[in-house]
Amino acid sequence: MHFVQAKGILSAQNGMNLYRGCSHGCIYCDSRSRCYHMDHAFEDIEVKENALSLLEDALRRKRGKCMLATGSMTDPYIPLESELKLVRGALELAYRYGFGFTLITKSARVLRDLDLLRAINGKTKCVVQMTLTTADEELCRKLEPNVSTTAERVEALRRLHEAGIPTVVWLCPILPFLNDTEENIRGVLEACAAAAVKGVVCFGMGLTLREGNREYFYAQLDRLFPGLKETYIERYGTRYVVDSPRSGELMKLFHALCEEKGMLHDNDEIFRYLSTFEEKERPEQLSLF
To answer: What is the pLDDT of residues 152-164, one digit of tens each?
Structure first.
């Protein structure tokens, strides 16, 4: 890892990345793409050492409360977070200043901060988003080698629900000829339903590949699934969007199962929910009525 002094922390949409780079080793990670102009090795994590002071200053200056977000580019719960606690610090600031919070992760380490997630959710809204790709534990260990397994993530989702924290799952990516099966889609969605997930985001059955992440992905296919790289190259060439040949039927199954299980499955509706700040009435206010 290496440290930098950042110039700012919050985006125009109130998102933040406390770290740049990742050590989870997911073979398909879009954040490796060259278009993001990461000028250091992806596994050499860049730590924004002044992130929390920048965040506190930004929250003090905000005229209105909103939902804060993290995890769009780098999983907030990489192993370094256990030592550096920047995410925990950001949660503490959100709670102190009365802001809502949502984060995206693949790690059961999120449970470390259950006390703060509950505290924020008691005042405003706190939503944990979790990415799931496969119900097959063996395949999960190949696709996402250094992160919590699917079973561990689903257990974290269950515990978050028990603590009153709403959850959203991202069903992605679905890799052609690997996890684009009816059995997998059913398995993931049934696990989501059992964990009382509020909604499932899915942009289609496939993945995106561009310069930077494509080369890494193909190298990992060669290592883990010999011969599959050639199938991808022959079928997709250098396309950005790589759709499963079963995309149509699997998307129909996705929507039908989510509807059956009572989980939101309209992306726009889910994103409106994630971005909408909600200030909850305090007990003393409720007692007036």
So the answer is: 999 999 999 999 9
